[in-house]
Structures are given as structure tokens and as C-alpha cells.
Amino acid sequence: GENVEQHPSTLSVQEGDSAVIKCTYSDSASNYFPWYKQELGKGPQLIIDIRSNVGEKKDQRIAVTLNKTAKHFSLHITETQPEDSAVYFCASFTGNQFYFGTGTSLTVIP
Amino acid sequence: KAGVTQTPRYLIKTRGQQVTLSCSPISGHRSVSWYQQTPGQGLQFLFEYFSETQRNKGNFPGRFSGRQFSNSRSEMNVSTLELGDSALYLCASSLVTSGGAGAGELFFGEGSRLTVL
Description:
The complex is a heterodimer of chains A (about 110) and B (about 120).
Chain A: E1 5-7, E2 10-14, E3 19-24, E4 32-38, E5 45-51, E6 56-59, E7 62-67, E8 72-77, E9 86-94, E10 97-100, E11 104-109
Parallel strand pairs in A: 2-11
Antiparallel strand pairs in A: 1-3, 3-8, 4-5, 4-9, 6-7, 7-8, 9-10, 9-11
Chain B: E1 5-7, E2 10-13, E3 19-24, E4 31-38, E5 42-50, E6 53-57, E7 64-68, E8 74-78, E9 87-94, E10 107-108, E11 112-116
């Protein structure tokens, strides 16, 4: 089955700096790659996604890149703010099922 | 529009007991899926229901079961609880078509936190 690996597990950045979270997947049939943000005490919420026919997608300070050949995708957050502090999960979709990474706890230091 | 509602939010059980968790999806969403979240393991897929039918099942023992009602509300049940079942159980609904599970946005509830003593 699909295996999604996510790194790093924890990340601390100064406010205003950039943050990058990387994920790899194993199933070449995976065709959809969302990123979810989970704040304390809440359920995950979609922040950005990318499909396999696109290499990059951007939404204001957030961007996702996909390298299908290398089977990896990354989340980029620029100009980080304290409210970006949360746990971020990557996921892949294949075989009618979502597979999630183990999460990255991002702390933005004011 | 109301979000996904899960009840109860917190519960404590002892080993050997059984538990039932409830999920009300967003109005109009016919797909409901369940995930187990534990520290360091991320979200593990349990099962997905669409129009009262289980369409997909993750790699969990038969002690974990679920069902969906005609109004799309869903329940999951865990029988003979073990210590390792302590986790946050998340329900997500999705606006997917009947043609398959589909790849679309999952809308998560806030979860039911189960503690097994």
C-alpha cells in the first residue's frame, strides 16, 4: 500500500521567516495531494492542495510543489506569523483512500 | 452552514468495554469517513461510508465497525476496548459523487477523544 513520510516532525521558525515541510509518497498512482492544518483542540482543515497534473500551486503566503518523478511534495509558508503555529499534515490519495503523513508541529516564535 | 458535529467530545472507558461514537456530516455531504489519530502516527484511515454502504476499509481489526444512516449520519463502534485504542477519533464528510470515493476536500469534525483505562 501507499506510504507517506513527512519531515520534519517539529519545526521552529522566527516570525517573518519561511517554513518548509516535505513529504514523500510511494505509490505512483497517487493523484491528489492535500495539506491540512490542525490547531489545538480542532479538527484538521484543508489549506491547499495540488493534483498530479500540476507542478506548483500558490495561495497568498502558502505554496505547494510536486515532483512526480521523485515522488515528493512540499509545503512552503512565507512570512510566517504566530497564527501559523499548528500541526500540519500532508496526504496523498490513491486507491480511493487518503494516506496521511505523521504531522509536523510548527512553532512560529514572535 | 453547520460543520461536522461529533459526539461525545470526550469519554473514558475501561478495557473490555465497548464504545459508540456519532458523527453528523455537513448537510448535503453523503460521504463520511473515520480516522484514528494518535501521537506520532498521524491519521489512520478506518472506513468510509457513502449512501449507507461501506465503500472502503482501512487496516483495523474487526472490533472496529461502523454504519451510516439514511440521513448520512454515521456511527462507529469499538468493542472489547484495549489500552491501545486510546486516541482522537475524527470524522470527516465530503461532497463526493457516487462514482467512487473521489479525491476532494475532507471536512473534519473536532473529534471524540477516547481514553481507555
